[in-house]
Amino acid sequence: MLSGKKILVGVTGGVAAYKAAEIISRLRKLNAEVHVAMTKSATEFIAPLTLRTLSANPVYVDMFDEPKLWNVEHIALAEHVDLVIVAPATANMLAKMAIGLADDFLSTVLLATRAPIFVAPAMNHAMYLHPATQDNLARLVDRGIQIIGPSTGFQACGTEGIGRMSEAVEIVESLTRFLSGGGSLKGKKALVTAGGTQEPLDPVRYLGNRSSGRMGYAIAQALQEAGAETVLVSAPTDFKTPPGVTRISVQTALEMYDAVLERFSEIDVVVKAAAVADYRPAVQAEQKIKKNGTNRMIELVPNPDILAELGRRKTSQVLIGFAAETENLLANAQDKMHRKNVNLLVANDVTKPGAGFGSPTNIVSFLFPDGRRIDFPQMSKLEVARNLVREIASLLDVETKE
Ligand code: CTP
Asked: Going by CA atoms, what residue is nearest to atom 14 of ligand 1?
């Protein structure tokens, strides 16, 4: 399947380095040409000889070793390969990549290559959730680097949490999907809404909510990675538009309504991750409202329910809704799923630690109208998004066969 594809596996110094052996072996079984670069610390966890034997190629560790295959080896290798996967990727290597530091063979190749780069983070959960690591990951995503995992579970330090490297089989599957150009959603058109709408009271104030937009942006990225032509209708957020995605910026629920409805008939799948204000101020003051020391009432009028309207109008489209709840999660979510006529509802309890607004991770359940339910453990929002894309692919399949 990977005949003629040249892959560089970068291995950094984490206990998951042993899984690199399986990645290399699986890639070779698929007929890929595999090269390996290790950091010095990685050689403490797994012997270069193991990886040399499995890859059937020399292993690069030191910048100043005698050349093995080429004269200026880090540049030649950077130009030779079709794809680079760093697995495991430690917090340290992610930080180096984020600032473009090149102080050993692997980090130098990562700076020199123009090939697509994938990273599979592996680290203790506190290190993964640290804002510095999250900022670094966000910078890598902005640059088009694809992140695989991590997953949740038992960690080598003896605790449970998020930060385990994804399994070799999943990593190889992601690379194969990418290299065979076989995005499962090729030829499909997707529309995602993200962020919290803002409903102006006067020229300087608005009614808003706590949605950061992170989940919606991750979904747009995952849909685009899977080959869908993706439009992101976004309320104001701090996130950069994922590479390849078309963004349409809106502020209010009414603007979002117009932007979504206008495009709906040409779209195959809509994911409504935005937190849409249910009400807006009845009047928007033309000038800044001045205080006068007394109580003030703001009259609110209802906004249209965009998702419910899509549910009424839908023909062959797949509709995905979200339910962010603070109580009675499953009952409220079930009710929303039927009321809004969606094909899948993503439910999350935003009061749980590790879930909800602004958090880099989420804990969700997928609910289907036929009563099926899938509960997921805590995982990065990007992994939630990729799981959602897998379900969307099979829902679209069902829809087109009918
Ligand atoms: N939604 C929408 N338009 C609205 C309100 C919500 O499209 N005016 C969508 C959201 O994008 C989300 C789903 O409906 O996909 C559920 O949103 P939520 O705010 O959880 O539900 P509500 O319908 O507002 O219900 P409630 O206020 O009773 O929780």
From this structure: 307
Where does 6-180 sit in CATH, by number?
3.40.50.1950
The reply to whether 189-401 shares the fold of 6-180 is yes
Contacts with 298 (C-beta within 8 Å, 6 or more apart), sequence order: 201, 281
Three-state secondary-structure class, residue 143: coil
18 HSE (CA, 13 A, CB side): 4
DSSP letters for 33-69: EEEEEE-TTHHHHS-HHHHHHHHTS-EE--TTSPPSS
Fold of 189-401: Rossmann fold (3.40.50)
- Is 331 one of the annotated active-site residues of the chain? no
Greatest Cα pair distance in the chain: 80
Helix (H, G, I), strand (E, B) or coil at 163: strand
Task: Name the active-site residue from 157, 169, 204, 289.
Answer: 157
Measured between alpha carbons, how far is residue 180 from residues 44, 167, 168, 292 in Å? 34, 20, 18, 66
Per DSSP, the residues of 310-369 read: HHHH-SS-EEEEEEEESSSHHHHHHHHHHHTT-SEEEEEETTSTT-STT-SEE--EEE-T
The three-class DSSP label of residue 147 is: strand
Which tens digit of pLDDT belongs to each residue from 5-33? 999 999 999 999 999 999 999 999 999 99
Query: Whose C-alpha lies nearest to ligand 1, atom 24?
Result: 278
Q: What is the pLDDT of residue 392?
A: 96
Q: Is the separation of the CB atoms in 357 and 350 below 8 Å?
A: yes
Q: What tokens were used for 40? A: 């010095």
Positions of the chain with pLDDT under 70:
181-182, 398-402
Mean pLDDT, the chain, as a whole number? Answer: 93
The domain locations on the chain are 6-180, 189-401
